Amino acid sequence: MGRSDLEFLSLAIGIVGTFFVCAAVQVKRPKHILEEAFGISREQLREVHSAVQKRTWLLIGFACNVIALLVLMFSRGAQLAEGSVLLEGLTTSESALMVLAAGVVLALGLLHGSRLWSRRYFRNMVIEVLTENQLPLESNVPLAREIGALLGVPADENDTVPSYMRRLRQRLNLPQSPDEVRLSR
Q: Cα–Cα distance between 142 and 155 in angstroms, integer?
């Protein structure tokens, strides 16, 4: 791999890293701002999930930028043969398209992986907070249903609120609610 290949690679990785840093600092979507302003926001966990996802993107962005700088430093210091091996025989426009395609593929792969990881991390964090604090899920049924959807506890059409809460509590390994304990006595 020639010096120009390594410089090219470092620039491509740096661009991908900058993309993730920019994605991490984005503000709320206008639709979500309006929903909150009108008091009709249905997804109460949206902000926490968004924060987890933005943190993941920020870490990926900075990691890519650090890797890009290390590759660039290596390319400058290494005594490698001049000339591009990867882009040999391509015109300038073909080389530019290759760079763009490689950057897009890398960014999409990292984006998909980060979404999977942040969703898993967020789900585990919700489970941890709920089990440690044993929150009263019955006091906020819409939030409990949102948590159930996140954890893969679908609402059945024959479910009553107590039966759904019982299944959700079983999924979280939480004790019965105080109301259910009183009814069972």
A: 11
